[in-house]
């Protein structure tokens, strides 16, 4: 794991609104707000910097509105940052993420990244079958032979414990947990070295949550996939993440080894959050 | 002959800053200890002396407030665990430093034998072989075979402790931290644990262990470090003891 960096994020900021020169100095945990009092812009994330290593799971933790999802949506090109840099390293190449053109971005999204959204509607095409969803991603990777696609889809659905008898059904017929598993299968179709997980277990039954977490851990062991897991659930962080970033009002308030964040939090906010966990 | 310690803790202190209460809570202070390959260093002392805190500081579950913890890695290089980068700590945890705590956190649904075999699998051992070794160790620790295939989530304290021990001992780290490894075990199983720790020492592992049972200290320890509660602890625990 050492010295094998896959992602380097430096000073990432995202402001919604026109922004002004006082936005950053008047928002954040110190001011108890992420809305700029001078111009009304929302500072969703500011000065986000971290490194991610191959095969590592990094947790991003924080309450609603802390900027955790914003951070990964910028990295997955769902949004464009206001400022900052991010570099992705793969197979001897490096990509300056925020300087790429649309086609290069699409290429990274389709081939090298995977994203699993909290809401399966964002990650799945509900107009085509479960198998079709996976095929879409494979087609983008120039796997065009029908039987190859079908075999790979079956393999992925088996791995994510979706009944392959149902692969030709539309995702809307599936339960929430199963939709989530199809989404994971789709994200994994191209064996991406980097996977973004946005609240993947939120809103699911406890037993289904456990199964999804199990699956994610297994994937990490087998494929050495690096992951960024965004969640507000301390239990998920404890089970999944090696290191954790704690966010509040768009800023990183603390970062450390997960067990250290949970057992010896340094920041006042983290201490309060950990102490109030059930 | 002069033997170099694998770990040298110098002047380790840990004080918790509780923001909500606006208080500082001293836990360990001015701790000096050394661990040597093939030897066991026992930490003893009353409750509240900061024994577990020292182990958690070495493992970096706690961030030390001050002090140095020089660890000699497999490649011969020295690293200060107090200030080492998080990725270095993660790599050391995977390959060189093990910790058997009094608690067991595991993934749901994982059978016990998988939990025990996991460190070996992570190190790259073939799955079947790792499971086989896990079973051997579980058998040595008297954990009934019918429990191997189910998750330890519902186990009793003593059973969980044996799972924890099996996992920690099997990984054969260069430095093993043990926090009261036999606290909830019967005398017969305790004997087995003593035997396994002895074997581990013979294979070259350095062990730092917290014991309450002085009889165990006598049987296993090559060195003893006694800790006292730090000054200022009494007021927080409403200790009525007379302080001279």
Question: Which features characterize this protein?
Answer:
heterodimer, A: 278 residues, alpha/beta, Rossmann fold, six-stranded mixed sheet, four-stranded antiparallel sheet, 10 strands, 36% helix, globular, B: 244 residues, 2 domains, five-stranded parallel sheet, 8 helices, 9 strands
What does this molecule look like?
The complex is a heterodimer of chains A (278) and B (244). With 278 residues, chain A is an alpha/beta fold. Chain A has one domain (5-275): P-loop containing nucleotide triphosphate hydrolases (Rossmann fold, 3-Layer(aba) Sandwich), CATH 3.40.50. Helices cover 36% and strands 25% of the residues of chain A. Chain A is built from 10 helices and 10 strands. Chain A has helices at 68-75, 102-112, 120-123, 130-140, 146-159, 176-188, 206-223, 234-240, 258-263, 268-275, and strands at 5-16, 42-53, 57-61, 83-90, 93-96, 113-116, 194-198, 226-231, 243-248, 251-257. In chain A, the strands form 2 sheets. Chain A has a 6-stranded mixed β-sheet with strand order 6-7-8-3-9-10, with helices on both faces. Chain A has a 4-stranded antiparallel β-sheet with strand order 2-1-4-5, covered by helices on one side. In chain A, a hairpin with a 2-residue loop joins strand 4 (83-90) and strand 5 (93-96). The longest helix of chain A has 18 residues, at 206-223. Chain A is globular and about 60 Å long. Chain B has helices at residues 51-59, 86-95, 112-122, 127-140, 157-170, 187-202, 214-220, 234-237; strands at residues 7-18, 23-35, 40-44, 66-72, 78-80, 97-100, 175-179, 206-210, 223-226. In chain B, helix 3 crosses helix 4 (127-140), helix 3 (112-122) runs parallel beside helix 5 (157-170) and helix 4 crosses helix 5. Chain B has 8 helices and 9 strands. Chain B is α/β, with parallel strands linked by helices and 244 residues long. Chain B has 2 domains: 1-96 and 173-244, P-loop containing nucleotide triphosphate hydrolases (Rossmann fold, 3-Layer(aba) Sandwich); 105-172. The radius of gyration of chain B is 18 Å and the shape is globular. At the A-B interface, helix 7, helix 9 and helix 10 of A face strand 1 and helix 2 of B.
